[in-house]
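Forgive a beginner's question, but would it be possible to get any protein sequence you like and the tokens describing how it folds?
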Amino acid sequence: MNEFAHGHGMRRCRYRGQPKAHLRRALTTIAVNIERLSGRSVTETTSPPRPPTAFQTYQDQQGFPRPKSWRTLGS
């Protein structure tokens, strides 16, 4: 949030009206994400998956099916 407020001037909006202000926020967010992604190296690995929570372990023991993650639906 600090990056938006101070680095990209999000405290002041030059446009009047919510649709234009929303468009500016959306485009600024896209630009910041591209900037962050371009700063990552290609060899940088992702973090390992977190261990399951106690509730997930209970569900696995009871035989409840685990829903697919939204991240893996397309693969």
Summary: The mean pLDDT is 76. Residues 1-40 form one domain. The radius of gyration is 20 Å.
